[in-house]
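Q: Please design a sequence for this.
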């Protein structure tokens, strides 16, 4: 089994009980596929940058779970059937964030070479 992090966006009209019920359905689906979940972590209600499907905000929830890699695709299909899940993004745990550089890596600034040549 591999570790995964998932970010769920739930509709803004749900109250805290509705959010908990939706996340319990997600956890049940992961359990049916033989996975293990941690407690979901609410990230709060946030506004979208632009309206999506006539909605302008949603509840964000983070969930960590372990699941066999070949069962992730069936899980995505099952999650699509849960009406209270607006969007989901599943990432493999421990994976580096794309586009991030190492702290020690430097990117040269355009024109810096010309200035050094003029100084020396």
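A: Design:
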């Amino acid at each position: 089994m591999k570790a995964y992090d998932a970010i769920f966006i739930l509709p803004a009209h749900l109250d805290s009980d509705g959010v908990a019920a939706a996340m319990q359905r997600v956890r049940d689906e992961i359990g049916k596929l033989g996975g293990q979940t941690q407690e979901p972590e609410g990230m709060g209600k946030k506004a979208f940058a632009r309206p999506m499907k006539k909605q302008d905000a949603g509840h964000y929830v983070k969930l960590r779970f372990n699941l066999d890699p070949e069962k992730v695709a069936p899980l995505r299909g099952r999650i699509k059937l849960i009406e209270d899940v607006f969007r989901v993004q599943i990432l493999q745990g421990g994976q580096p964030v794309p586009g991030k550089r190492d702290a020690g890596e430097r990117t040269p600034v355009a024109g810096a070479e010309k200035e050094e040549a003029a100084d020396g």
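Q: Thanks. Anything notable?
A: The first helix runs from residue 16 to 32. The chain has one domain: 2-94.
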